[in-house]
Amino acid sequence: MATDKIKLEEIILKAASVGPYGVTDEEIRNSLPENVAPNDRLELYNSLLQRGRLQLKKLHGKLFYQTVEEQIANKLQALTAEERLVYSQIEGAGNKGIWTRDLRNICRLQQTQLTKVLKNLELKKLVKPFKSVKLKNKKLYMLYDLEPSVDVTGGPWYYNQEFDAEFFDILYQQTLRFIRGSSSAVTVEQVASYITSLGISKEKLEHGDFESLLQTMIYDGVVEKLYQRSNNGSSVAVYRSCRHFSPFATLGDVPCGICPVYKSCSIHGVISPSNCVYLQRWEQSLDF
Amino acid sequence: MEKYILCQEIINFHFGELYGHLFWKLSTCGSCSFRELVKISDLSATKVKQALAVLLQHSLVCAYEKDSGRVFFVNKPWNVEGGEEILFEAKVEEALLRLRFPRFIQLSREYYGETGEVLCQILLERGLLSFEDVIQVGISQGKLKSSAAADSLLHRMIEERFVSVGGYEYRESDAAADPFKSGMKRKRWTNEDDVSLDREYDEVESTDESRKKLQVELYRASTSFMNRVLRHEAFLDLVVHTIRENSRMVASCFRAILSLVRKEDECFESEQSVPVQRDAVLDEMRSQAPSSSELVTVDQLNEALNILQEERCHFISGIGASSYVVEIRKLSQLLKQRAAEQLILKRHGTSGLRIFHLLQDKGAVEQRQLLELAMLPGATARERLYAMFRDGYVVVNEIPSSSDYKSSRSFFLWSVDMSRLFQNMLFHAYKATLNMLIRLKTLHAEFSRLVGSNLYCVSEDVENLPVQQEILERHLSTQMSSINYNAASMELKEQLEKLQQRIGLYEVSILRLDKNIMCIRDI
């Protein structure tokens, strides 16, 4: 009987380990043998819940059962009520993390108490602290095994919460070289496959990352976006190099156009065109 | 203020300090009567009269009756019968247009050859002249070889509106012989380009039958029409630099459309041009084709029109089945936009241009969002943003979130205000042009000093020298050619050569800056 109970528990745990949110009672019932009575099933649920191997969640008005790893369950067993409360809030925040101030407000714990709880959870490797690229002064907590979301980490362009200008610049230059070297306009997919083939980036870059890279190049005025008809009739965005030149844009060609102190310049002032060193240097640089 | 200082320097440069001083007083003090002008300028009545006469002749000042507002150009309006008070007003835009004279002369050369260039130059130098006087001056200066050829060309230029009637003069029959004096004896006329005014002239009958006065038309170079031609050239340049597919045919098609709308395209503020028919465009393209072997087909024309109408460019729009209009407002905005982008690129680099485009695209954003979207290191992006704010290219609006307007709780949204940006660019261009002019003057003074003779300084004793001749003497190129270099040492020759090169550099820079001013203001 005990072995039957263990086997049935294993079946329940296996069934509840699928899906990100667990399974409903009906799904577990379907995976169990038909001779298992509802009361027996309830007993099994209670036993697993008591040992922390099963977690109960409510979603869209329905109850879901989710398996908890044995190692984690053993750790959670040893938690106090406050620690369990804090842990559940951090777990609920998912991969976006939760701010310590929000934790304090929700759990209604004093700061010193909360700090102690968080420290214990960190020691048990149940939670980990990190900082968001958007709000560098805020300390966030999330579950130890989870990877932070892109919103928080900033995506592939950020390293240690700082913008990785060097990495971005390398990708930018390679993409620009590819576009300029192409005889016709290129799609995002073509750019992605070229950059991936170069093996510059260790982590996988998504379609959206390449789109944001190309959009930056459009803002710089080195690339333009067009729409072409594909074979199936839909319009596809393509990119080609461009150079927006105007023969009437001449203000930047003279020293006064790029002078940092042009606002202080006057005919009879200390800075004046008669004695301007920038103009003198310009004349000398253009001497034939 | 830079605009008025620039105008004063232009007048100083072209006419002299006396005329520049008077123009400055008129432009800064507003309309003045003759007496007021004498008082505020601290000049004698004779000098004021002399200066006004020249400025009126070159359309740099206009005179009008105080009560009725009726405009008339009179060389000596203080002598007009009737006793109405006459006010004088400076025409600042005309003064700025003088920077463009070399381009007008070049335009005349492109359209009418060397003879046309000479005729245009004479008219620009002298302001107003009668038909015969234009030819006479050209012949007497040795620039026109045949008066018959010049005559027919001048007729053609009048028909094609490069030259227009500027007024009338009443001459006694014996006054027609002297070309220098003839331009000074106008009584009263109105400018044909001012459509709001009716043409007026009086027939003045002399009591002495033997000295009957003749009404003579006076002509001037039609700067407004030539400005229009330059404006169209700017549009054509833009199209050529934007469109890459089939660019030669597209440029030819667009040129044909512009030449068809040119005569009617008077209003700079209109959004679209007058419509043109496809057949007319085809005929114009064929007439402009260098040889009959390059005949344009209907298919080629249709392809070019489709490219011009593309949503990406949208330089022209179709009306009905076979009519097209030029999107003037869109072209002007695009030209200004390109000029702004180039300036920002030169002053603030690629990062500044990126921030500018981002703000244009996203509208108003917070600094934090901007730094994320710009894909730049935070410090660099912040530095560029504040540098552009200092230059007036971006603006910031404070949106308070609490009723006490506490700045710590306010949102600061960054955005681009295009009209303010263009205004700042225009003032910057005025200042740069002024600096070039000042520097040019300094180099001219240096040149004169090196040569050892006071070539450029005109004597204040103007009564001994006809005014127009004195003004013409100010052109350095004429003087340079008459300098005898044989007597100069090697070192002096080298220095003079360097100075001439630098003078040329600044003259070219002024022309290029005027292009920028035209792009922002006159397009």
From TrEMBL, chain A:
DNA-dependent RNA polymerase catalyzes the transcription of DNA into RNA using the four ribonucleoside triphosphates as substrates. Specific peripheric component of RNA polymerase III which synthesizes small RNAs, such as 5S rRNA and tRNAs. One of its GO terms (cellular component) is RNA polymerase III complex. InterPro entries: RNA_pol_Rpc34 (IPR007832), RNA_pol_Rpc34-like (IPR016049), WH-like_DNA-bd_sf (IPR036388), WH_DNA-bd_sf (IPR036390). The keyword Membrane does not apply. The keyword Ribosomal protein does not apply. PANTHER family: RNA POLYMERASE III DNA DIRECTED , 39KD SUBUNIT-RELATED. This is DNA-directed RNA polymerase III subunit RPC6. The lineage of its organism: Eukaryota, Rhodophyta, Bangiophyceae, Galdieriales, Galdieriaceae. Keywords: DNA-directed RNA polymerase, Nucleus, Transcription. It comes from Galdieria yellowstonensis. It is found in: Nucleus. Belongs to the eukaryotic RPC34/RPC39 RNA polymerase subunit family. GO terms for biological process: transcription by RNA polymerase III.
TrEMBL record, chain B:
GO terms for molecular function: single-stranded DNA binding. It is found in: Nucleus. InterPro entries: POLR3C_WHD, RNA_pol_III_RPC82-rel_HTH, RPC3, WH-like_DNA-bd_sf, WH_DNA-bd_sf. The keyword Nucleus applies. Residues 6-63 form the RNA polymerase III subunit RPC82-related helix-turn-helix domain. Keywords: Coiled coil, DNA-directed RNA polymerase, Nucleus, Transcription. Its main location: nucleus. The keyword Transcription regulation does not apply. Residues 341-416 form the DNA-directed RNA polymerase III subunit RPC3 winged-helix domain. GO terms for cellular component: RNA polymerase III complex. Residues 482-509 form a coiled coil. Component of the RNA polymerase III (Pol III) complex consisting of 17 subunits. Belongs to the RNA polymerase beta chain family. DNA-dependent RNA polymerase catalyzes the transcription of DNA into RNA using the four ribonucleoside triphosphates as substrates. Specific core component of RNA polymerase III which synthesizes small RNAs, such as 5S rRNA and tRNAs. This is DNA-directed RNA polymerase III subunit RPC3. The lineage of its organism: Eukaryota, Rhodophyta, Bangiophyceae, Galdieriales, Galdieriaceae.
